[in-house]
Amino acid sequence: QVQLVESGGGLVQAGGSLRLSCAASGGTFSSYAMGWFRQAPGKEREFVAAISWSGGTTYYADSVKGRFTTSRDNAKNTVYLQMNSLKPEDTAVYYCAATNPQALTIVIVSTTTNYNYWGQGTQVTVSS
Fold first, then answer.
1. Contact assessment for residue 78 and residue 23, using Cβ atoms and an 8 Å cutoff
2. What is the DSSP letter of 1?
């Protein structure tokens, strides 16, 4: 059983930056690909970014490409989401999640039902 805890959310002005962290425990962190998702009020949870087991491959939603960067430190059992040039439409609860499929593709990593474990979420609010 893997436990995931997000941190780093908050209130920021448009154009600003935030760095989210997701600390994992209870499993072999390096055996999981990690994903970031977000959910705004009244909307479905949507894919933001994902990173492979070693960190060598990353995937991004078109809406955040060029602004967000995900990375991981397997020695610290932590995955990060650096968010730059934030926009009001980035406002949402952000979740990290863990998955261990046999292969990774953008379709696999962007599908919520492929993830086995989820964090509780952290609120990100971007003011205009």
1. yes
2. -
Residue located via tokens 């055996």:
31
**How far is the C-alpha of 117 from the C-alpha of 95, rounded, in Å?**
10
Q: How far apart are CA 120 and CA 101, in angstroms?
A: 22
Q: Are 58 and 48 in contact (CB under 8 A)?
A: no
| Residue type, position 14, single letter | A
pLDDT score of 91 more than 90: yes
Cα 72 to Cα 22: distance, rounded to the nearest angstrom: 9
Instruction: Concatenate the DSSP letters of all residues of 43-74 into one string.
Output: S--EEEEEE-SSSS-EEE-TTTTTTEEEEEET
pLDDT band at 7 (very low <50, low <70, confident <90, very high): very high
Using CA atoms of 111, 115, 117, 120 in order, give the dihedral in degrees to the nearest 10: 0
